[in-house]
Fold:
Amino acid sequence: MWDKLSAVFDLENPLMRALGTAGDLIMLNAVTLLCMLPVVTYGASLTARDDVLWHMVRGEESYIVRSFFKSFKKNLKQGSLMGILFLAAGMLLVLEYEMIRAIPAMHSPLFYAMIIIIAGFVLAVGIYSFALLSRYENTVPNTIKNAAVLALAFFPRTVAMLLIVVGFCFLYAAFFQFLFPLLLLMGITFPGYLCALFYDPVFVRIDGRDEKQAEEDGHSTGG
Structure:
């Protein structure tokens, strides 16, 4: 009996690990929402969230709050600027959509399809951009450019992440009164965690390529 109880409460037990991850996501969700409140800092907040999440995916959990604020402070300027750029892009797409609705001659499935495709691509680039900024030091333009390349190069993963983000946004909008507690608990971090499961292998490939290139450079220098 005691053996069974100890097995249940073993920290390596899948159930206990899942509960531990859920607790970390709840804690991370709280600080992410808090730092998003000024709005202009939402990009830095998402960057810090992604920094913690890909470490969690790799099993490198540390102090959640401390790691978050360390990354938030480090990426405050670039993350906030990037967030403003994507916010502006989103507002332009909304204005474009309203313009199409206001002009009868533009009421065509083709125009609506173009808006959806462009919006999807912008969202995908945003997902990759904040994740890249959390992992690699680069300028904002180069980070966005690299994110666009990755969004196209790893298209199946991109589609999966878009389905996750859009799906959760739809659920929150459609069942807000029921899912509001979930939104407060882990509404931002849980979809982000699922996305991290898809983009972290991309990071692994990038890291491997960079290490191989550095090794080759070292050999050529030594030779």
About this structure: The mean pLDDT is 88.
